[in-house]
Fold this sequence. Notes:
- By secondary structure, this protein is of the alpha+beta class.
- The chain has 18 helices and twelve strands.
- It is about 50% helix and about 10% strand.
- A five-stranded mixed beta sheet has the order 1-2-8-5-3, with helices on both faces.
- The chain is globular.
- Bound molecules: protoporphyrin IX containing FE (HEM).
- Protoporphyrin IX containing FE (HEM) binds near residues 299, 359, 362 and 427.
Amino acid sequence: xxxxxxxxxxxxxxxxxxxxxxxxxxxxxxxxxxxxxxxxxxxxxxxxxxxxxxxxxxxxxxxxxxxxxxxxxxxxxxxxxxxxxxxxxxxxxxxxxxxxxxxxxxxxxxxxxxxxxxxxxxxxxxxxxxxxxxxxxxxxxxxxxxxxxxxxxxxxxxxxxxxxxxxxxxxxxxxxxxxxxxxxxxxxxxxxxxxxxxxxxxxxxxxxxxxxxxxxxxxxxxxxxxxxxxxxxxxxxxxxxxxxxxxxxxxxxxxxxxxxxxxxxxxxxxxxxxxxxxxxxxxxxxxxxxxxxxxxxxxxxxxxxxxxxxxxxxxxxxxxxxxxxxxxxxxxxxxxxxxxxxxxxxxxxxxxxxxxxxxxxxxxxxxxxxxxxxxxxxxxxxxxxxxxxxxxxxxxxxxxxxxxxxxxxxxxxxxxxxxxxxxxxxxxxxxxxxxxxxxxxxxxxxxxxxxxxxxxxxxxxxxxxxxxxxxxxxxxxxxxxxxxxxxx
Length: 488
Ligand code: HEM
């Protein structure tokens, strides 16, 4: 009895000491730590975490400290600090925790690697984004946008999000795997086709389950023989076989000129003669597919919802688009070059990137040595979460930050945004995503006017990325006078 009491008291004392340490070793402001778990509570309502962080910054300042058990996490929306953290690559390395799940399947990938491994992969993949490749992929985007436009049913409320989802997969499937998925024309193929079913099983069940376990500190269960993981292992096996076939086909069909997709790019020898193995190619194709599959399409769904709610903004874009069409011959299609002629749409895109940067918590770093920036001490081993969402709503940078006002960019065109990160590790798909978003909106605004469906308002939540809850964005489309059945 006495022994049990001693053990109990010892535990209580340890918990009190840990809690006091958590609170008194704090160097930065932040909410008080709860016994043992620290600020774990902050992370429990993940769908609303963007709002929680915004409120914490209002209360405690732009740079706050949270503790989850013994791990210190600095969450900052201070642009000066964010910039330094993004750019000082030796002092702040990529925190591999966030994308560890990708490494689990295939070994190192461009996203979850650091140092020499990352440099090797980056050098190999970067030329894919040269001018000529972006131009060619702009043609693919326009074709996909025209197909999507034909699927839009007018005069009734439709959920636009799954359509963009399919279009996003068609584009990234072609870029990352060199494959024509053609989901816009056949959305049912997602579950009816063997290899697509495997890809979606891995993404929507396997990866989602692993990330949830990791978040709850139960990563050890990744090796547990859950039925879902067995199915996922078979799916990965099939996907690997299918990608190997794609690699062999690409090898046997040499292209003239620039590569249009990642597999061609990776088949080229690098300057130092390094040849990618099949597994290295599969790892990076899959990582790029994962990074690009949901981001641009999610922004597009939100974009249309915002236009539907702001008819005056929609009208101004339509006017700008019509003026361009007016000077072109019948049957003309926009191309990459035409994107330099649309200043108002550019402002609207910037405003969308500011308020809805979707990959809001994709940028996490680990501190490699003690360093002080802008009055804040970073200690070796600290994790730093760069809070893009709150940075873009900082009232000291943006007047009336919550207001959707594209004209703000006329008077302050150069305020930097962190939508895609900054510096060497900046988003690899920035150019592709930007042309995809601009060209899709350009074509849709030529042919349709969108109105909101007030009975089903869009709700945003966080699930890895900021996205419309349940993938639902209900809008009513009306054909404009330019709509033709074949579409221009
Ligand atoms: C609007 C759409 C997108 C947004 C907002 C976005 C945002 C981001 C952000 C914030 C990062 C982290 C940067 C950092 O921590 O320094 C990132 C990384 C990355 N993104 Fe994107 N992304 C988008 C679309 C895409 C697309 C379409 C692709 C593929 C073609 C892509 C591929 C990547 C890759 C490979 C990385 C890792 C780069 C590295 O670690 O070197 N992203 N993205």
